[in-house]
Amino acid sequence: MTIRNDLDPLAEYAREFATDGAIHLNGNSLGPPRHSLVGELDRVVSGQWAPRQVQAWFQDGWLDLPRTVGDKLGSLLGAGPGQVLVAGETTSTTLFNALVAACRLRVDRPVLLIEEASFPTDLYIAASVARLLDRELIVQSRNGFDTYLEENGAQVAAALAAPVDFRTGERREIRPITALCHAKGAISVWDLSHATGVLPVDLDANAVDLAVGCGYKYLGGGPGAPAFLYVPTRLQTTVDFPLAGWHGHAKPFAMTQTFIPADGIDRARTGTPPLLSLVGLNHALDPLVEVGIHALHRRSQELGEYFLECLAERRPELLNQLASPRDADRRGGHLALRVAEAEKVESALADSGVHVDARPPDLIRFAFAPLYVTREQVSRAVDALCNAVEGTQ
Ligand SMILES: *Cc1c(COP(=O)(O)O)cnc(C)c1O
Predict the structure, then answer these.
(1) pLDDT digits (tens, 9 = 90+) for 240-287
(2) Domain boundary among 290, 320, 355
(3) Is 119 a catalytic residue?
């Protein structure tokens, strides 16, 4: 068990992560592993897979893992049990599944609405779903999105948005958009990838219809960790997923010819899940759940504010290049700065052991993952940033 330090109660968690002395401010891209992951994988491989082979699916809780991990994640998402599933798909396929299902709940409505600043895969998948189902894809600016819903909401089958802009970190409030969708009879779909593990999203309280999110960013589930899907109990009997695979069948092992969806969230399953990846995600969730989403959020905000304080002290003119809202309550877990030659700054920082994430042409993003980034690292990162920016001028 970790020993808590009174001055910095979460700092001790940082020791649990294999960061190898480097500073990882790119945990919104891929978080580092915990040291204990290797032992956990060995426990499953040597202790379950090797001795029990295929029987382990039934005897070691493997078949339940998509739901077990989903329920654990639910505590970070404000979702009650039985509403979150980790089927073993990517975020892209999970979003496809959710968007088609959303459109199938609104067969008479011609429009699929999305924000233009969405993560590219969301735009591609939404366009593909629109082509497949013969709907019109409407792409709107942030303000245009709300206006479109207000003026043409009765045409909208599903509206897809994200609570955190993946470039600027700017927040989008889930509650009012979801309420607006409901007032117009549209299905609200949220991509939580850049929020999960760092920002409370209160899915049940906000009455969200469908949501998806990524397992390998702040959750730290590992490279290519599977995505999750949220389906509230009230929609679970009507929702009809296009990826109707045998694991989503009411009786998968009866091997019948016709698909009969399982009760509850199990109908969102597809095929045999990537067990070792699920084990990795499950293991990564433990410290996050232990700390809880509100403390994680607070910690991430404090680190972000400290970053801005250090910058204000050492190179205040860089604050004019902030691409993110100055108010911490209007941001997710990361900050973005506009700098000339962002990729050069990124590689100069990497040379000094500070890992950030550039988004060409001119953005660098700094993510404040709450459990393995420390105040002391933030201060060192700002020093390195000031040097790197000087070096590229
Ligand atoms: C990271 C991210 C994804 C990733 O999709 P994958 O299919 O898992 O690679 C999708 N959407 C958003 C908003 C993201 O931030």
Answers:
(1) 999 999 999 999 999 999 999 999 999 999 999 999 999 999 999 999
(2) 290
(3) yes
Per residue in 152-168, pLDDT (tens digit) is: 999 999 999 999 999 99
Atom number, ligand 1, closest to the C-alpha of residue 92: 7
- 3 state SS for 309-364: HHHHHHCHHHHHHECCCCCHHHECCEEEEECCCHHHHHHHHHHCCEECEEECCCEE
Copy the structure tokens of residue 328: 């911490």
Residue tagged active-site, from 71, 122, 146, 191: 191
61 and 136 fall within a common domain: yes
Domain end point (choices 245, 267, 290): 290
Residues 282 and 339 in one domain: no
Residues 96, 11 share a domain: no
Place of tokens 């011609």: 110
Look at ligand 1, atom 2, and give the residue with the nearest C-alpha: 193
How far does CA 238 lie from the centroid of its chain?
25
